[in-house]
Amino acid sequence: MEENMEEGQNSKGCFECCVKCLGVLPYASLFATILLYAGVALFCGCGHEALSGTATILQNYFEVVRAPVETLDVLTMIDILKYVIYGVAAAFFVYGILLMVEGFFTTGAIRDLYGDFKITACGRCVSAWFIMLTYIFFLAWLGVTAFTSLPVFMYFNIWTICQNTTVVEGANLCLDLRQFGMVTIGEERKVCTGSEKFFKMCESNELDMTFHLFVCALAGAGAAVIAMASAATVLIRNNVLLTSQSLGKYCTRF
């Protein structure tokens, strides 16, 4: 009988411990971090492969050759964008960890575990700096989303022309890279609808795959925008509550 009572008390204590641990979790910050990681991973992974597919299309069907080292051409710019993607992935991996740490330490449920504490001036400055950084990242991802929509629009037009080859069969439409600023005015790099290269490009897997990869990269950038907006909202709310109620009991659980 006593053993059963001890087991019941132990199980009750374990249950209370689990409930307390779940109460400590900053759910809104956790949601923003997971969404941020998912969006950045989607953008970086799909964007990297889409850039590689773009380089393959330019070299195989538009006969774009790599310029000398001292010249900045479209293929070199693609390589630079790939390195930028590597930096973005590493930077936001660290930022996601900092976002979770900030969420844990501004969660009011921590007080139940570690006792009373008061927010200091240094803590308020760190929170304000983190809010400003998050807002800057939000604006940056808005710009990235707008920039990513450009290749999506361009590939959508090309993909639509390829899907309607019978409609444009009589017309002489050409895809000229000079219109997109990818080559200089003196270089003529174009593919017309009636040419063999055009049909090969439309039938290839590179065009369809690259288009859909850019669409996925755009979706990832949009997810990162939503994550930044959510994180900024959470940080502002927690900072206001911690600043205004630092002398009283608060429990944000954000």
From TrEMBL:
Q: What is a single Pfam family found in this protein's UniProt entry?
A: Myelin_PLP
Looking at the keywords, is Membrane present?
yes
Q: Where in the cell is it found?
A: Cell projection, Dendritic spine; Membrane
Q: What is its main location?
A: other
Ribonucleoprotein: present as a keyword of the record? no
Q: Name one GO biological process term.
A: neuron projection development
Sequence intervals crossing the membrane = 21-43, 83-105, 126-147, 211-236
Q: What GO cellular-component annotations does this UniProt entry give?
A: axonal growth cone; dendritic spine; filopodium; neuronal cell body; plasma membrane
**How does the UniProt record describe the way this protein sits in the membrane?**
Multi-pass membrane protein
Sorted keywords for this record are:
Membrane, Transmembrane, Transmembrane helix
UniProt lists the family membership as follows:
Belongs to the myelin proteolipid protein family.
Q: Quaternary structure per UniProt?
A: Interacts with OPRM1. Interacts with palmitoyltransferase ZDHHC17/HIP14; the interaction leads to palmitoylation of GPM6A.
The identity of this protein, by name, is Neuronal membrane glycoprotein M6-a
The scientific name of the source species is Oncorhynchus kisutch (Coho salmon)
